[in-house]
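Teaching note: in complex prediction, the entire set of molecules is handled at once rather than each chain in isolation. The prompt given to students was simply: 'Predict the structure of this complex.' The entities are:
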Amino acid sequence: MTAVAATEPRRMRASLTLSVGIVLVGLHVVVALLTLVWTPYDPAGMAGGRLEGPSLAHWAGTDRLGRDLFTQIMIGSRIALTVGAGAVGIGALIGVTLGILAAFATRFLDDVLAAAFDILIAFPTLLLAMLVVAATDSASLFSAILALGLAISAIVGRLTRILAKRVLEMDYITAARTAGTSWAGIVFIHLLPNIWPTLLVNFALQFGLAVIAEASLSYLGLGAPPPNASWGRLLQEAQGTVYTAPFGAIAPGLALVTLVIGMNMLADGLRDIGDPTRRRSR
Amino acid sequence: MSAVLEIENLSVRSGETLLVSNLDLTIGENARVGLIGESGSGKSLTALAATGLLPPGLTATGSVVLDGTEVIGARDADLVPLRGSAVATVFQEPLTALDPLMRMGSQIYQPVLRRRRRAGEPAARADIEAEVRRLLERVALPDPDRIANAYPFEVSGGQRQRVAIAMALACHPKLLIADEPTTALDVTTQAEVLDLMAGLVREEGMALLFIGHDLPVVARIVDDVTVMRRGEVVERGPVGTVLARPEHDYTRTLVAAADAFDRALGAAR
Ligand SMILES: Nc1ncnc2c1ncn2[C@@H]1O[C@H](COP(=O)(O)OP(=O)(O)OP(=O)(O)O)[C@@H](O)[C@H]1O
Ligand SMILES: [Mg+2]
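The expected output is the structure of the full assembly:
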């Protein structure tokens, strides 16, 4: 009786978290898709006076060149989602694969991989981005995504390795192996489902960090070149006029915060669904 | 009679430390053998070495022939098909021996599917689910459908251990290794699970290696017993003989402890 009473609010909270997360992230996805076919104004053209405040015509005001800020923020959603999804996608693919490999590997290979993760984590992302730009011969959104993906792969790899090692020590893995389960079976049937909830939350965190990191990269000219307005670039441009036109900084900041919070809530909600001990209890 | 498991001169080391030394143990078809000894005497390591699943960092020397295949030095890929068909294991702590995030029905489904595929038997979903249900009934679980849909944390310790036994049974192994399968259970449940295992081993025609540190518990289910202490075999023989005329000091203390326990129980009654 009491157990049921105690889990009900928790379950409701979990589904509320998930719903808010879906709404916030969904909003950005819809806006991002919309910009592919329509924006309120031409993102590169003069749409009004310079540094106007918010109005019905310009919901977020205008920038120094008189361009509509709301239009740029909408396009920023697309860039942020591309960067986040791209970087986390690359990071997850490389990180999870190498992390699991390390957990299964011989002592020597495990040590090598662990050291590689640590070195890459200690390596400044900025320097990594410069190397990638040098290697790909152009600063583009892609080079920023690649650099961030590599940085994330080290973090994900280290986390996966630790989580996987802990799971591989469990009796149920030995039990499955004595019953003749192959390595592939162990990985896909037992290991991944058991480390997935924790990884998922980490992916959401990395997604938010990647979106923020892309901002600094594009400021330094290591990310998307103009006129692609990433939120980071908008923030940097608004810096000089933050006292006269504060909304130029507030608006992209709000956009960034809603996406990052939405991502984290989405991940939390998904984790709760994936974990039967949180989902229900008798 | 050929042996299912033939261990000769097995030593297990961790670096320089000898954890199991020069152990011999043979289990014939349908034989029920007990392995007893105090905590840390190397019982579990012996069982793991028998299936080629020693933890990383431990090395085994000597010879372990499992169902005709030499285990020591074998490639893991060659042992995978052997595991399950030759041997399956039930562990001490049923909560950690079951995948916490998987419904228990699915956990039995996997070994059934694998065995049927290997044997070239029909492996349609409905066939397997019917067998999972039969297995759950076989280990005397009430309400098999509810148990199949439940997660390990949702049932009692005794029920979990029955599910673990059903998983082992699903493999149809020639040898069942039970590593202190009843230690984590209360006394009544312990007796029930023991009787269940004894019955199943007899009916399915499996050999049994039963590991424990409690002489009366082990004596209840096996015919022969091997006593280990600090990684070495100190005594072996038929259960009755060892219980009645223990030769080694250590076995004597085990028997004395068991007698004292019985007397205490008798006095309490
Ligand atoms: N991975 C390992 N690395 C090093 N030493 C180990 C390892 N696993 C076990 N040992 C040691 O080997 C010895 C035998 O361990 P084992 O688990 O076989 O004991 P046991 O007889 O099963 O005891 P229990 O009744 O407590 O289960 C112990 O001293 C233990 O500390
Ligand atoms: Mg043990």
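Point out the following to students. Residues 51 and 83 of chain B are 7 Å apart (CA to CA). Residues 3-268 of chain B form a domain with the Rossmann fold fold (CATH 3.40.50.300).
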